[in-house]
User: Which sequence fits this backbone?
């Protein structure tokens, strides 16, 4: 069995960062991410990459009325109110030309028109499964809303990426009930376990950061796991960190680490699942595109040498017979 490179992107614009970043201090990265998307698509076409784009449901809306129209009536009542996107909805502007930080339908259409790209879910309102105040009813209502607005845009969502990688078995089961059978799980090891924001302590963040450059916690690469409930975990292997002018050595080691892991996956017939957000590439676009090109050149070599293949999450679900 040939190994697989799986790439998934969490496409969210400001909706993924609005609780801890403002338009003033991070808007440039989000707008830069919009510019980076066509560059990524061109690279994916050039290297024959089939990627999964997990999009926030709000981004399917063409205007604010549509955002409200599809919004679920049952919503999470978070202990931390700033986590809810709904109070923002009336302050963001009417549509994509007025508010490109919050609307993204033209980009979604462009992604969908590119060969081999899968449109998947990142929930409707970028909601958080493990934060206090989330309920099963609100979770289910949100995913139904995500599916409904995507259907209206001509898509059927069969894969999901959970915001901040927060989930439990019941959340996975609810996603399956809403038609999303493939989901991105977490890398192997205790450090990468799914947890609420307050549990993400500094030592855990530091361990994840260091493990991104040095082989501290082993090599990530694993086949998907089929759960008893008929859903498929396509576990993440590694977060592709943005190229950094401040830490050039880190960036170099990070690239090397990913290439080593990818090579291991190609040689042993395993799956290597790389993920990031478009806004991670929104600053230093040239350097980030160069970093991605280097990684995809490695992929190409491994394809020629070992038959390593590119696959979206939906491709994996089809191969495994979970749909
Ligand atoms: Zn997100």
Assistant:
């Amino acid at each position: 069995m040939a190994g697989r490179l799986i790439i998934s992107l969490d496409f969210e614009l400001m909706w993924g960062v609005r609780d801890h970043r403002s338009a003033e201090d991070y808007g440039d990265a989000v707008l830069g991410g919009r510019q980076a998307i066509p560059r990524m698509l061109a690279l994916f076409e050039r290297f024959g990459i089939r990627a999964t784009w997990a999009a926030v449901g709000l981004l399917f809306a063409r205007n604010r009325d549509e955002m409200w129209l599809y919004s679920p009536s049952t919503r999470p009542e978070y202990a931390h109110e700033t986590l809810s996107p709904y109070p923002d909805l009336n302050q963001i502007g009417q549509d994509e030309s007025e508010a490109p930080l919050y609307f993204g339908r033209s980009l979604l259409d462009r992604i969908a028109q590119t060969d081999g790209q899968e449109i998947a879910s990142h929930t409707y309102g970028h909601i958080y499964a493990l934060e206090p105040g989330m309920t099963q009813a609100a979770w289910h209502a949100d995913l139904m809303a995500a599916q409904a607005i995507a259907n209206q845009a001509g898509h059927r969502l069969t894969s999901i990426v959970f915001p901040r990688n927060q989930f439990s078995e019941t959340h996975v089961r609810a996603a399956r009930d809403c038609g999303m059978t493939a989901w991105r799980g977490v890398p192997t090891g205790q450090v990468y376990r799914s947890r609420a924001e307050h549990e993400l302590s500094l030592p855990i963040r530091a361990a994840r950061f260091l493990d991104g450059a040095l082989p501290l916690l082993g090599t990530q690469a694993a086949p998907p796991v089929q759960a008893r409930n008929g859903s498929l975990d396509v576990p993440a292997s590694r977060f592709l960190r943005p190229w950094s002018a401040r830490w050039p050595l880190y960036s170099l080691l990070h690239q090397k680490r990913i290439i080593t892991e990818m090579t291991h996956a190609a040689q042993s017939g395993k799956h290597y699942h790389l993920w990031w957000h478009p806004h991670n590439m929104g600053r230093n676009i040239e350097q980030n595109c160069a970093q991605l090109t280097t990684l995809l050149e490695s992929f190409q070599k491994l394809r020629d040498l070992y038959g390593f293949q590119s696959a979206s999450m939906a491709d994996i679900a089809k191969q495994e017979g979970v749909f």
About this structure: The pocket of zinc ion is lined by residues 10, 12, 16, 122, 126, 163 (CB under 6 Å). The mean pLDDT is 94.
